[in-house]
C-alpha cells in the first residue's frame, strides 16, 4: 500500500507500530533516533513519517525543522507520551500533519494514515499539474515539425538555467515567443519580463532606455528614471533586434553583462543588476562583426546558447496547425462564430510564399475570417492572400 518511516527511540513503540502497519500491508522502515530518522527521510521516499518528540541526538521538533528545510513532502505525524495541547499546536504550526498522544490508539492511527494518504495524493496531483502547466506554457509555440520540436526541447533544457540565449531568425518567425517561453519556464517566472526593441528606439535614447538617467542628465530629463536593466532585475531582459544597437550602447551592455553593474546616464554611481539577458536578431551578426557594425566580444557574451527559429517556408507542414490556431484566436477576439478551412484552402496556404512568416499568416487568417465565407475555400485564399488582388 505504501512505505512508512517510524522514528522513535523506544523499541516497544517501533515494534507496536510495525505490527499495526504491516498488518495493514504497509512497508515499514525504522530509525531509533532523530539523526538517523532525518537522514533516512532525506535519502528515501516515504508516504508517511511517524516521529516521536522526545529523542536523543535530535528531538522531534528539530527533525521536523530538518524535513521542512530539506523540502520533504511526506506528511509527518508527531507522537509523544509527554504531549499537551501547546506541544500539539506548536507541531502543527511547524508543518506536522497531525499529533497523536501515547499510548497509541489503533483506530486513531488508521484514520490519521488514511487522511495523510489523501494529502499525499493531492501533493502528487499538484506536482503533475505544475508540470502540465509548464509544458502548456512551453507548448504555446505551435508546431510539430522536427525543427520546432527541437526548439521546444532546447527551451525546456535551457530555461531553468541563467545562461544567456541569442535567438536568430527572420522577421515574424516568433522569436519573441521563444524568449517569453524561456522566461515562463525559468525560476525567474514570478519576476518581470521586460522587452526592449532596439531597432524602434532612436540611437540617442537607447542608453537612457536601457540604463536609465539621472535628473538633469539632458534637456528633457526632468526627473530620475530607472532603465530596463534595473526594472528587469531578478527577471528577464529581452533585447530584441540587438543587431541594430549603437556602438556606444553595445559597450555599456557588454560591461553590464561582464560585471552585472550599470550606470545611469548622467550618473557616476554603480548599480548592481541581476537580469537574465535574452537577445534576438534578424541579422547575420557574424557578417555584422566582419563589417565593424557589431562587437565580437558582445556577441560571445550573448551567444552562450544559440536558438535559430526557422522561417514559415521552412516548416510548411505546421501551417494547418497555425491556421487553425489563429482561426480560433481571431474569431474569439472578434466575437464571431468559428469558421473552417477547406482542404483546398489549407493546401493554398501551404503553397503561399510567406515573406512575413507567422505574423503575415495571422494577418491573412484574420482577413479571410472577415471577408470569406463560413468555410474558407482555396479560391478565397488565392484572392485574399494577395493584397493586390483586393485593390483591383
Features:
five-stranded parallel beta sheet; Rossmann fold; 15% strand; 16 strands; 392 residues; Helicase, Ruva Protein, domain 3; 3 domains; single chain
What can you tell me about this protein's structure?
The chain is an alpha/beta fold and 392 residues long. It has three domains: 3-129, Response regulator (Rossmann fold); 143-310, P-loop containing nucleotide triphosphate hydrolases (Rossmann fold, 3-Layer(aba) Sandwich), CATH 3.40.50; 313-391, Orthogonal Bundle (Helicase, Ruva Protein, domain 3), CATH 1.10.8. The chain has helices spanning 11-23, 34-43, 60-69, 85-94, 106-138, 146-158, 175-184, 203-211, 228-231, 247-259, 285-290, 296-302, 319-334, 343-351, 357-371, 378-384, 387-391, and strands at 3-7, 27-31, 48-52, 76-80, 98-101, 165-168, 193-197, 212-213, 225-226, 236-240, 261-262, 271-272, 276-281, 305-308, 340-341, 375-376. The strands form five sheets. It has a five-stranded parallel beta sheet, sandwiched between helices. The chain has a five-stranded parallel beta sheet with strand order 7-10-13-6-14. It has a two-stranded antiparallel sheet with strand order 8-9. Helix 4 links the parallel strand 4 and strand 5 (98-101).
Major sheet: 5 strands, parallel
Number of domains: 3
Shape: extended
Count of alpha/pi helices: 17
Rg from alpha-carbon coordinates: 30 Å
Tell me the CATH superfamily of the largest domain: P-loop containing nucleotide triphosphate hydrolases
Strand order of the largest sheet: 2-1-3-4-5
- CATH structural fold name of the largest domain: Rossmann fold
Q: Low-confidence spans: pLDDT under 50, at least 5 residues?
A: 132-139, 388-392
Tell me the distance between the termini: 74 Å
- Indicate the CATH class of the largest domain: Alpha Beta
Percentage of residues in helical conformation = 40-55%
Q: Under the CATH scheme, which architecture of the largest domain would be assigned?
A: 3-Layer(aba) Sandwich
Query: Hey, roughly how much beta strand do the residues contain?
Result: 15-25%
> Kindly state the mean pLDDT as a whole number?
88
The total strand number stands at: 16
